[in-house]
Write a structure and sequence with these properties.
The protein is of the alpha/beta class and 341 residues long. The chain has a single domain, classed as TIM Barrel (Alpha-Beta Barrel), CATH 3.20.20. It is built from ten helices and 13 strands. The strands form three sheets. Strands 3-4-7-8-9-10-12-13 form an eight-stranded parallel β-barrel, surrounded by four helices. Strands 5-6-11 form a three-stranded antiparallel β-sheet, with no helix packed on it. Strands 1-2 form a two-stranded antiparallel ribbon. Helix 8 links the parallel strand 12 and strand 13. Helix 5 runs parallel beside helix 6 and helix 6 packs across helix 7. The radius of gyration is 19 Å and the shape is globular.
Amino acid sequence: MFDPYRFARPLLHRLDPEDAHELTLRALEANVVPPQPRGDDPILRTTLFGRELSNPIGLAAGFDKNGRVYERMGAQGFGFVEIGGVTPLAQDGNPRPRVFRLPEDGAIINRMGFPNEGAAALEARLQRKGRPSIGIGINLAANADSRDPADDFVQLATRFAPYADYLTLDVSCPNVANGQVFLDPSCLRDLLARLAAIPWAVAAPALVAKLTPDIDDAALERLVGVLLDARIDGITVSNTTRARPVTLTAAHAAEAGGLSGRPLFLPSTAMLARVRALVGPSLTLIGAGGIASGAEAFEKMRAGANVLQLYTGLIYEGTALVTRIKRELAVLLEHEAVHQN
């Protein structure tokens, strides 16, 4: 299959990463990005919070912060998409430069700080465009200068419940004030209690908490316990990491921010397995972190993920990566099914 991204990537990677991303969004908005092949292998079918998906590969939050292109992503091969993060009020985020490519490591470092146009702008787009043909989540975050971050989440959850299959509580961003307030179990417990007290005008949305890999096993167990007590619907494992493996070789490896991509695969997958052991078999887990092949997607699922998310790999391979992952994953799942029967 012809892959135009092979020719576009050298040009895009000469640009600042944010400028390249903006150009990508504009191309998607103009509907000039060629679609990926239609028709997923039936073995990839799954459900996510009651929504039927043709495949378990999702687009992670951060790609479409303001809901500009989410309706295009089914044609790019995804089974679901997560918009955001969105904050109640628009904010600029951290000063640029704030995104750094580490091509030798298959990684990205970002310290974006949740730049976005705010809740009103996103809701206006959702009202205009409607539900996509694929599953949809919305990633929620507190404003960096908010005096009551929990109230920010309550406002956002109330506002966006009608528009999504699930809402993600991004309580683990390493790049912004208020980003990790709720890693304190007492603060997290208070937030979840306030969300549970919302008098929903529609059916209560499925709520997902996104966790950081930068905590030890004891802290992880405490946080998961709080989430289970509150009857959370799902957990995303994991967010980016502040850690810097000694194996990093790229020039920007020392930049501050969250590291994503290939170096995150092993620690996030190990954390995923720990979370699955803590929560048991029934809770929905979204596996994220460093997926760039069908074998890695399969490994995440064997570690306990129900569905998967990726983003960083797209920067290096484009959406042809989604098609390749699905084809490789289908072969591995079929092979597993044969040997189980």
